[in-house]
Amino acid sequence: MRPFDYIGGSLSAGPVRLADVAAEVGTPVYVYSADAIEAAYREFEAALAPARICYAMKANGNLAVLRLLAGLGAGADVVSEGELRRALAAGIPPEKIVFSGVGKTDAEMEAALRSGILQINCESASEVRSLSRIASRLGLTASVALRINPDVDAGTLDQISTGRKTDKFGVAWTEAPVLFREAAGLPGLSMEGIAVHIGSQLGELEPYRRAFRRVAELARMLAADGVAIRRLDLGGGFGIRYRDETPLPLAGYAKVVEEEVGGLGCELVVEPGRRLVGPAGVLLARVVAVKETPARRFVIVDAGMNDLVRPMMYGAWHDILPLAAPPEGAEYRPADVVGPVCETTDKFADERLLPPLEAGDLVAFCEAGAYGAVMASTYNGRPLVPEVLVRGGRFDVVRARPTFEEDLALERLPEWLRGPDGGG
């Protein structure tokens, strides 16, 4: 069964009607299916065992989602101290955490070292040297993987490609042997692995094959020089269906992994993010008005680009479904679906064919569980969007919508701007 489907004419997550969630929590609101997240994790577990699954939590960092995955046995791939702290707070053991990212500060590297995480993925010579200095000062040893840039075009959007030589990530694979040998001689470092990640929303196996082949070449070259590699971090990037894409078959991916790096005898790490949570989430919104002009039909909803920025940032497609199933034979007409934010770019869809909608109707933006709430903002003074987790026949608010007073309380006026009575 799909995570969200029409039951008795109402879009639902299993037995939970999404209209009931909207009535209790208000809109806009994100809704996640715990059952769908668990099913997606089990699919990875079955296809890729015994590889270590470290959830790329930049896709969705909600604590309840993290706790759910931790309970299933997942580790985490983090890219900041904030994400590290979230992962630990959610109960993910430090020995299952990998710290990636191209711009780690000294404070972040120190936090990672003190936490005792599994591995730090270094992405430059300067980062390797800084980590050595920090680890030596602390009297600790950092478990390190060197992230290489294999110069492989993943065939995805420019904005989410990470493995080409013009991208900011990783060390050029041609320069990696020299840096690896240098790092192996530095104090405070245990050079244990090679990491690679070539992009997000991948749909083809061949880019993975080319990248893993270069990883294997480097591992064999280092082994010949007496530098043993014990762990390969193969990254993530597994695509999902937004419109007409065919999600990458995990069995095919597992076969490529086995063929290219299976004979190296290394522990394997994979970092799925979007594939675990993307299809498991929707953003619910209410139609504020339908505006007809001589040129266009606008469906104006109460969700904006501050709530879901992907269509505006990437030109991304999200299916838009009414929560009440359209009657048979309903006439579908083109409409621009827009939000209330004071920006022309606050637009979810151009000329989308939609059934009749009017003020007060509810709609769902599908496949919104990844890079949705985690990228939300308070632009235009709009409170952060709340999040709800559904499990079986119940739903729980796992992040409440802040009140306007709570938002204002985060800010302070300097004394010289306060009135005579000490107020604003």
Structure description:
It is a single chain. With 424 residues, this protein is of the alpha/beta class. The chain folds into 2 domains: 5-30 and 278-409, Beta Barrel (Lyase, Ornithine Decarboxylase, Chain A, domain 1), CATH 2.40.37.10; 101-270, Alanine racemase (TIM Barrel, Alpha-Beta Barrel). It has 12 helices and 21 strands. The protein has helices at 18-25, 34-48, 63-72, 81-89, 106-115, 125-138, 176-184, 206-224, 250-261, 274-277, 310-314, 404-409, and strands at residues 5-7, 10-13, 16-17, 29-33, 52-56, 75-78, 97-99, 119-122, 142-149, 171-172, 189-195, 231-233, 267-270, 281-292, 297-301, 320-322, 333-338, 347-354, 362-365, 387-391, 394-399. Strands 4, 14, 15, 16, 17, 18, 19, 20 and 21 form a 9-stranded mixed beta sheet that branches. β11 (189-195), α8 (206-224) and β12 form a beta-alpha-beta unit. It starts with a strand and ends in a 15-residue tail after the last helix. The mean pLDDT is 93.
Feature tags:
TIM Barrel, 29% helix, alpha/beta, 424 residues, Lyase, Ornithine Decarboxylase, Chain A, domain 1, eight-stranded parallel beta barrel, nine-stranded mixed beta sheet
